């Protein structure tokens, strides 16, 4: 069990399974985990990174997240200085189901969503990402809750 304490709320994430493999400094790193949050519905995270040369050089990276039938993946390059260049793809059948993981966002009822975007790190560490070419498709929406009246 992992507990994260924020000024207004405590979040507890349970670790159902965790597999981390990294045999040497210049070897591939692989992570697979299944986690549970407040509603005990599992979500998974997979990460894989392969060095392109030395440890400080960019690593070929693949990230995959799955929860509530939604999937998000990112592939590209990252380095230890937090620079990244990633292509992100997502499929989200029912966006509102992710409110269980992100309750403070109050996500609307959007259905059959897909997103594709290119993200690169900002110029300075901590900057917002630079968003490249992006495609967003929404198959249906019920915005009555979000926009009353």
Structure description:
Strands 1, 2, 3, 4, 5, 6, 7, 8, 9 and 10 form a ten-stranded antiparallel β-sheet that branches. Helix content is 0%, strand content 58%. The protein has strands spanning 2-5, 10-21, 29-36, 42-51, 59-67, 70-78, 84-94, 109-120, 130-137, 140-142.
Number of helices, where a helix is a run of at least 4 consecutive DSSP H or I residues: 0
Helix content: under 10%
Radius of gyration from the alpha-carbon trace, in angstroms: 18 Å
Measured between the Cα atoms of the first and last residue, the distance is: 43 Å
Task: Name the poorly predicted regions.
Answer: none
Beta content comes to: over 45%
SS-based structural class? Answer: mainly beta
What's the main sheet like? 10 strands, antiparallel
Average pLDDT works out at: 87
Q: Which sequence of SSEs, written as H and E, runs from N to C?
A: EEEEEEEEEE
Note the overall shape.
Answer: globular
| Count of distinct strands | 10
Oligomer: single chain
